[in-house]
Amino acid sequence: MAPKSIHLLLLLQFLLQILEIHAKVPTIIVFGDSSVDSGNNNHVSTVLRSNFEPYGRDFNGGRATGRFSNGRVPPDFIAEAFGVKPAIPAYLDTTYNITDFATGVCFASAGTGYDNATSDVLSVIPLWKEVEYYKEYQKRLRDYLGDEKANNIFNQALYLISLGTNDFLENYYLIPTRSSVYSVEEYQHFLEGIARNFVTELYKLGARKMSLGGLPPMGCLPLERTTNLFSGSECIEEYNDVAKHFNWKLQGLVANLNLELPGIRLVLSNPYDILLEIIRNPHSFGFENAATACCATGMFEMGYLCNRFNPFTCQDADKYVFWDSFHPTEKTNGIVADHVVKTSLAEFL
Asked: Which domain holds residue 43?
């Protein structure tokens, strides 16, 4: 081989190594609500828990970990797709230590939102507290790995953020405090401001690769359809429209922050379209039921109302889009996560 060809080959190998280094995601770090919580609520004083049967019955070992599903939640599938690990542990779970958390950690809390008032509804972890836990985690990881290695992890990690549904369904539309002050659009703007500040704070703490999660078609959740009996239990389109509009606002926020914050790679991971497609065409994805959930009657139960003493829970959760009245089954989570990995998160692979 000619010297020039050897030189070009070595240069190509070097460039490929550089690209591989920059594309590598060593750690998955998760913030948010029950859509991504892997068990933090087990360790706070709240009624919103799922650390009992039949939750987790299809999880590895059949364990009820505190995930609001029969099995894994989207960050678990995403972490596996990135070759990191098959499941992301909850930060407050004392059966794990800093060695486990070095490659993936979840700070999410079921029932929380961008708005502090949302976390107060069911006494769960507010977003600001999730950030405080993250700062504590940063200190622990620096003590464990040293500053240089830890800072590299913070910089190269993929941050998954999934929030907002509870702000509307468990706060704005149920409790008059916010709705008496804000119109829906004003409340969306209020939440967008919190999202901006949150992403900016993570950026200042070293985060560069971030995924901001959009809202699902929340008017099609079984719990909401149950309350819509006068319309034949169809999806509540008003709620779906709110979700679409808020996602549009988040997309604009993502575009602006990518321009404002040097070096940031922020994407919007929007589950709305893929989840709505599953709900409208369940048979195309191998499901039999999208209107009611697997657990209990499938209409309004979640948490303690969905327990092993309820005789109505289905035998095969894979036939259902939803596990309980608010949360998807493991199969649905896997489909949504796969869609997100192949679209918005593809640039991080």
From this structure: 26-217+237-271
Residue 314 CA to residue 317 CA, distance in Å, equals 6
Q: In this structure, which long-range contacts are made by residues 56-65, counting pairs with CB atoms below 8 Å and at least 24 apart in sequence? A: 57/317, 58/317, 58/330, 59/330, 60/86, 60/87, 65/38, 65/39, 65/90
88-119 pLDDT tens trace: 999 999 999 999 999 999 999 999 999 999 99
DSSP secondary structure of 170-215: IIITT-HHHHTT--HHHHHHHHHHHHHHHHHHHHHTT--EEEEE--
34 is catalytic: yes
Q: Which of 33, 34, 38, 109 is catalytic?
A: 34
Whether 33 sits among the annotated catalytic residues: the reply is no
Instruction: Give the domain CATH number at 114.
Output: 3.40.50
Active-site annotation holder among 37, 324, 339, 344:
324
Nearest to 235 by CA among 163, 149, 175, 322: 322
Q: Is 245 a catalytic residue?
A: no
Q: What is the torsion angle, in degrees rounded to the nearest 10, for the CA atoms of residue 306, residue 309, residue 311 and residue 312?
A: 0
For residue 151, tell me if it sits in a domain: yes
CA end-to-end span of the chain: 33
User: Mind listing the pLDDT tens digit for each residue in 123-143?
Assistant: 999 999 999 999 999 999 999
Helices (H), the chain: 3-23, 74-81, 98-101, 116-121, 127-145, 147-156, 165-166, 176-179, 184-204, 222-226, 237-260, 272-280, 330-342
